[in-house]
Amino acid sequence: MTKIFKGVVVSRKMQKTVVVAVGRQKMHPLYGKVMKLSKRYHVHDELGVKEGEKVVFEETRPISKTKRWKIVRRLGLSKGEEIKSEKGKLTKKTGKEKK
Hints:
- The protein has strands at residues 4-14, 17-27, 34-44, 53-59, 69-77, 83-84, 90-91.
- By secondary structure, it is mainly β.
- The strands form 2 sheets. Strands 3-2-1-4-5 form a 5-stranded antiparallel β-sheet, with no helix packed on it. Strands 6-7 form a two-stranded antiparallel sheet.
């Protein structure tokens, strides 16, 4: 069975490789506090995704020393990411212009 994960692209400083962070929550075995954990994966990118996009990726054959995953599809921008407006200024996803 193929493993499939969802995550957010946190870096794309390599060619055809992106770093995707996958977050999860786990309860501490003794104290019962809920902890946020995350793991980063090197994922093969043929779609040309950008930083801040949510993606779905799956397990594949080894592509390089650290890459064993490939992107299946995009899910869009994650919450609160900045996008460019018509004037070229950065704005929040709410649509208000940055001054």
